[in-house]
Amino acid sequence: MSKTDYTPLLESFQFKNGFTLKNRVVMAPMTNFSSLPDGSVSDDEVAYYIRRSKGAGLVVTACVYVSAGGKGFPGEFGADKDEMLPSLRKLAAAIKGEGAKAILQIFHGGRQCPPELLPDGQTVSASNVPAELPSGGNGPVPRALSEAEILSIISDFGEATRRAITAGFDGVEIHGANGYLLQQFFSPHSNTREDRWGGSLEKRLTFPLAVVDEVKRVVKEHAKVPFLLGYRFSPEEPETPGITMAETFALIDALSGYGLDYLHVSLQDFWSLPRRGTEDSRPRIEQIVDRVAGQLPVIGVGSLYSADDALKAMQTGIALVALGRPLLIDPDWVQKVTEGRQAEIQTALDLSAQSTLVIPDPLWGALTHTPGWLPIKA
């Protein structure tokens, strides 16, 4: 295919608030395990982002914890206190200095947090229901959050947003996907509460929407220029009971009327099919785009390695295409498409290229020692 065939990926995109991206490619948020023990961004991490911020129009950072009790990964950086502002400023400036817009993804891990990373060693969640592990069995039993703790965490999301604004980020993305705390409140698997935070579908939406409200309030109060607000969600859960496509549609309906700038669908496989909750057999992403019905831009992601993969994904009606693993494997992905060299895009990790790819040691270890996580070229 000729270079001009890929123009849908390279066209600029303008959000309703006037915020403009130079192209339709987003660097997806990816945990990199490479921050310093105090929660600040390491120099290796900054270099990793610089290497990948020259091409994409928008870079969404790895998730940052908004509360010390919500740290989900070793080597995760934080936005839980003002002492993190120099770290956050350094990262925002590094990304923006390469021509991309910078989005800080804000997060609380809930019951998914490793107890050894938490100040008191105790995971928390909507209810005291442990996570079902992919390998079988259950994770640690979390403690159900009190009313006061819930309100405090909502405030923490707002404070992290204030820090993102102060640090010079162009927006925040609320992480409501991948089984973390916001999803735990929405899910009938993890939320068995009988107060205003759980029970019915409507009540299970209360916490996620309260977080959105607080973040919006802070943006209105503190942002002096257009500032993006996105929400990432996972469209279904494998557990029974668990989130179905019907409940996903209810979440989309609620979020679509909440003044967000975009929705980001978290999928391992862009073309994955629904499990239950819909009679429609089409891929989830097509049904989600239909449900949003143009009210918000949708970002899609999921194992789109080649330019042809990404172009085909755009044909579903998504506004922006996010690349995660493809930008780990080939940080020059966008530049190659721009220059008509899309045939040169690497789609398998070259095990001899860590320094060229600028991948920090902790992330490199995860990539090369996790079977099946990435295509690997020896």
Can you walk me through this structure?
The structure is a single chain. This protein has 14 helices and 14 strands. It has 378 residues and is α/β, with parallel strands linked by helices. The strands form four sheets. The protein has an eight-stranded parallel β-barrel with strand order 3-4-5-8-9-10-11-12, surrounded by five helices. Strand 3, helix 2 and strand 4 (58-65) form a beta-alpha-beta unit.
Strand % is 5-15%
Largest sheet: 8 strands, parallel, barrel
| Fraction of residues in helix | 25-40%
In sequence order, what are the helices and strands, one letter per element?
HEEEHEHEEEHEHHHEHEHEHEHHEHHE
Computed Rg: 20 Å
N- and C-termini, Cα separation: 28 Å
Report the principal-axis shape. Answer: globular
Tell me the number of helical segments per DSSP (H or I, 4 or more residues long).
Answer: 14
Q: Which strand order do you get reading across the main beta sheet?
A: 3-4-5-8-9-10-11-12
Total strands: the figure is: 14
Structural class: alpha/beta
Mean pLDDT across the residues is 96
Low-pLDDT parts are none
